[in-house]
Queue: 2 jobs
Job 1
Amino acid sequence: MPRFHISLLLILVLSCSGKPASNETMEGAIASDKEVVCFIYHRFGDSRYPSTNTPVKDFEAHLAYLKKNNFQLLTFSEAIEYLKSDKPARKTAVITIDDAYKTFYDRGLPLLKKYNVPATLFINTKTVGGGDYMSWTQLEESVKHNVEIGNHTHSHNFFLNQPAATRYKTFKDEIELSQTIINEKMNIRPVIFSFPYGEFDTKMKDIVKEAGFIAAAAQNSGVIYSGGDLFECPRFPMSESYSAQDKFIEKASMKALRISKRSPDDYIMPKGNRPTLTLTFDGDGLKLDQLQCFVQGGECELKVVDKQKVAVTLQAAKPMTKKRRTLYTITAPDKQGVWHWYSHLWIDAAID
Ligand SMILES: [Zn+2]
């Protein structure tokens, strides 16, 4: 039993140390109001897979919009450094691509070159060179054109499906294996990580921190901000149902709804099919009478519990359709009419 207590304490200490106080960055510098909008893409012009595909014309329109509107465009790791730095705030966006499908090399990369936009590509090393995936030569070629390589594990497995007894060791071993392979093949040691399917628990997040990465990308939608938890950076998905230009512009203009406290503090779906999420945030400057919440595939019930520091609970109005991943989202406009966004992912690992 004492061993259990020590390891529990360690987990608690690690999870606290990863979250800087809201007015400090991890380096202890005063955080400014800096935010970064990050987008996630998978396949390009490959309509066989609508849920992970972006039409090429949509991708080109996204890049053209970001350039025309003077966004600072950075790789993922550069954006993290920018958030931690004392550089002045600028409209900033990051393009990320997960899985390294060939369609990125054939149809995405030429557009990045045309518009001179950097990007970050998260690769799962096991599949490089096979089937629909890019080869090492194509990855090398991409790096020459300002594409940063990130770690996306070796196998891209559903790690939450493994029993806790083996999950963490397998996850850690895979991250290290991927780092070794990328280093051997490309002479690069990635400093950023992306969770396969955006799925993780608190301990997996700690493992990524301990492995020396500077940040990790999740798949909840939302905006990254200085002082936030950089090991679960939200990204807006840009697959077919979200990639139309009006929707892209709406996301590119979005601000973070900065949550200071949430319960539960992870994404594991609790028992029952109408999970309750309680969030606390600073309502200063927000039009709280226009708070909205959304449950993917259903209706949402929103209750304001405390108006002073704004605590709200969100719950699906009806039992949710059984899905592996479901998002709860809350948004509110500020007094300038700019919308602020937070989304919470529920993962039910019992569903394939
Ligand atoms: Zn992936």
Job 2
Amino acid sequence: MKLYNRTIVVTGGTSGIGLAFALKLLNRGNKVIVIGRNQATLNQVTSKHKGLIGLQGDVSNADSVREMAAVIRDRFPEVSILFNSAGIMRAFELTDDNLHLERTTAEVGTNLNGTIWMTEALLPQLARQNEAMIVTVSSGLSYVTSPLHPVYSATKAGVHMFTDALRVQLKKSGKSIHVMELVPPLVAETNLIPDSGGPIPSMSLDTLVKHGIQGMERNKKRVVPGLSKVLRFGGKYFPDALANAMARG
Ligand SMILES: NC(=O)c1ccc[n+]([C@@H]2O[C@H](COP(=O)([O-])OP(=O)(O)OC[C@H]3O[C@@H](n4cnc5c(N)ncnc54)[C@H](OP(=O)(O)O)[C@@H]3O)[C@@H](O)[C@H]2O)c1
């Protein structure tokens, strides 16, 4: 798909992977709308990067998703790409007596519900374009569980399965909407894991963006760069050994 002169919505576009893709796409002559919950961060990002358009909203809140979809439909009816990057990752012990239900399912709300809801809410609008694309962002941790983050991998495996189902349904319906899953390994320069400094080498944001943009231009179904390829293989043949290794941090 040609990535020029398009209008693109990037959820989680105020930081890390979403922001890096938003800036690359902006610099290539596209109109880019970035979504995040925090209005102060949106203001900061849009005043630093002229041309980026901010839209405040929470992908884990159904009312907010409906509101964002209505604003996008009214103000930007030409949107042809949805890039679902909003995501969170939480470490906790399931045996902790102080845990509460909302805490353990926060990742389900943002990573899984958020991806499904934004996709569903923008689909009618995307379907009206000559050509459109939906990108989902899963993770190498969709192949291997991270026991330190007991719910994260479950949400990313869910994103993976949802993406495959979506692609097949859209193909059957004859709609010209490409569906690509980006499967990042651990990536540097993001705020997902603020205290990460562990032994696993990370990919630079720049390298990830190069892989992702190339995949989008070539209408790839899936982009699995760097260590994610290893996790894909390892998760198939040595899931228990890898889960135990991940538990050691
Ligand atoms: N970083 C990695 O190593 C890595 C590896 C594999 C996969 N991923 C995936 O890549 C995606 C982006 O992660 P990142 O590393 O770029 O994280 P990040 O730097 O923490 O950025 C997360 C972005 O999502 C937004 N966000 C979070 N919850 C939201 C919600 N409920 N509604 C709307 N926006 C929300 C944040 O803004 P607000 O807080 O203002 O809402 C921020 O813009 C995530 O899906 C993550 O799981 C990351």
